[in-house]
Automatic annotation (TrEMBL):
Transmembrane segments: 21-44, 50-69, 76-98, 133-150, 162-179, 191-209, 221-244, 264-283, 295-318, 369-389, 410-432, 438-454
Any coiled-coil regions, as ranges: none
Keyword presence, Transmembrane helix: yes
Protein name (record): Uncharacterized protein
Alphabetical UniProt keywords: Membrane, Transmembrane, Transmembrane helix
Species of the source: Acetobacter tropicalis
Length: 485
């Protein structure tokens, strides 16, 4: 057992700030941009850095719950998360039953395909247990954080701003790695890639252009995170929110995304551009079309000036860019694309072979999200997730329409757009959405919806109830108790 550099930083930090759960969530967001690093290495397995603040937060809040502390939005949060909880229960039960029910009857792609090199017969394996553990921790963080963040003395707006700040961290790391790959600037590989459980692709090239993966295991994973940042920044800027550096983060994250030369990132952005007018029409705010046009014109002007400067200073960039464009458009002819497509087709075939039940969580690993989910949790799990997504989206739209622009609405708009970007990217080329910072974004969205519901409920009591002063005195006493705890 060894403790890498990241763990040497996080262990004392989490111990020192254990009694400050809000600080743990901020640390989690920044640790989430280091998924290829490890806070602790046990044998050939590495504990992701975000796991330390997540477990510290969960342990402290559970201890408070045992001591009788409750939060004002508990009921609303549990109502919103109930479909997801049912899906998790079905998933865990299925991971125990399905590999035994269909053992040696179907062929699956294992979790660690690089050690096998092909499909194997289905059988119970350690992947079922390990993936269940990750899922349970992710779900516990999502529900506990969502309930905790309904506290009136907690600023979820600051937590969302930390998410945007983590985007700046990734942009800086991208620029750092690019300088390392091009000019030989020292770059701490041992710090960013200390997890032995990850196959890190940090030496890939797109012709003469280095492919940047920053602190992630591969360029596509880095592009997925940057898509979340870019979707979120574009949407809140269009909405007119005044968030420090959000406007500048749009071109910065777009440039970092381009440096990954990831087809996943480019395709996700293309889908986002197509969905943007639809999102504007759904919100019913027509003046956003004018904001979108101004943002597009300003972005085109910045990009045009940047291209002219680059072509003048470094004319060799033009053939390199042409080569990158050609490799992107011809991606379907590549062997890697054919292999991933075959894994997706094989995974979709498992749905029929198992009568729609799936082979169990952790038994099969496809190349993209939908085949991976359907092949493991089956049609029942897929329908449950759709119900959860639909309920959450409907509740978010209803909440944002019921309040004027403010902190809670900012979090709803920002997290909902970020989650959309992450899901679209995963549907293109990621088998799962298992990172803790993604589940924390869901928790922030759920808590913001619950806080709006509480505000509406209190406003109704304030108007209609003759005993409103007594109710509010009781609520104020509860808030003081929460602050003291």
């Amino acid at each position: 057992m060894t403790v890498p550099i990241v763990g040497m930083i996080l262990f004392p930090l989490c111990l020192l700030l254990w009694t400050r759960p809000v600080a743990m969530l901020h640390i989690l967001l920044f640790a989430g941009v280091l998924p290829a690093a490890a806070a602790l290495v046990i044998g050939g397995l590495g504990v992701q850095p975000a796991m330390l603040p997540a477990l510290a937060f969960i342990s402290f809040v559970l201890l408070q719950w045992i001591m009788g502390v409750r939060y004002p939005g508990d009921r609303t949060v549990m109502a919103l998360c109930f479909p997801f909880i049912l899906v998790v229960i079905w998933t865990v039960i299925g991971s125990l039953i399905m590999p035994r029910l269909f053992m040696n009857q179907v062929m699956v792609w294992p979790q660690k395909g690089d050690t096998v090199g092909g499909r194997v017969l289905l059988s119970p394996n350690f992947g079922n247990i390990s993936q269940d553990i990750y899922l349970i921790i992710n779900t516990a963080l999502m529900i506990i954080a969502a309930r905790f963040l309904t506290r009136t003395d907690v600023s979820i707006e600051k937590l969302y701003r930390s998410f945007l700040l983590s985007g700046w961290c990734v942009v800086i790391i991208c620029a750092w790695q690019f300088a390392h790959r091009v000019a030989g600037l020292p770059y701490p590989d041992i710090f960013f890639y200390s997890n032995p459980g990850w196959a890190v692709l940090n030496t890939q090239m797109a012709g003469p252009v280095p492919r940047i993966n920053a602190s992630f295991s591969e360029p596509a994973a880095c592009a997925t995170f940057l898509c979340q940042i870019l979707f979120s920044c574009v949407w809140i800027v269009l909405q007119g929110y005044s968030v420090a550096w959000a406007k500048w983060l749009i071109p910065a994250s777009a440039l970092a995304l381009a440096s990954t030369t990831s087809t996943t990132g480019f395709a996700t952005m293309a889908v986002g551009v197509c969905l943007l007018p639809v999102a504007i029409m759904l919100t019913g705010v027509t003046q956003l079309m004018g904001n979108m046009m101004r943002l597009a014109i300003g972005g085109a002007a910045v990009v045009g000036c940047g291209v002219l400067v680059l072509v003048t200073v470094a004319p060799q960039i033009v053939p390199a860019a042409q080569l990158v464009y050609q490799s992107t458009t011809e991606k379907q002819q590549s062997q890697s694309y054919q292999d991933r497509s075959q894994a997706d087709r094989d995974s979709m075939a498992l749905v029929g072979e198992t009568y729609g039940l799936g082979v169990g969580w952790g038994s099969n690993r496809a190349s993209s999200l939908i085949p991976s989910l359907l092949s493991t949790v089956g049609i029942i799990g897929g329908i449950g997730l759709l119900i959860f997504d639909g309920m959450l989206l409907r509740a978010a739209m209803r909440a944002r329409r019921s309040v004027p622009p403010g902190p809670d609405r900012l979090v709803i708009d920002g997290t909902l757009s970020a989650l959309t970007g992450g899901i679209i990217a995963a549907c293109i080329s990621s088998p799962t959405l298992g990172l803790l910072d993604f589940y924390l974004l869901i928790a922030m969205l759920v808590s913001a919806i619950a806080r709006v519901a509480l505000q509406q409920r209190e406003a109704g009591v304030r108007i209609n109830s003759p005993v409103a002063p007594d109710i509010f005195m009781e609520r104020e006493a509860q808030r003081n108790l929460l602050r003291n705890s």
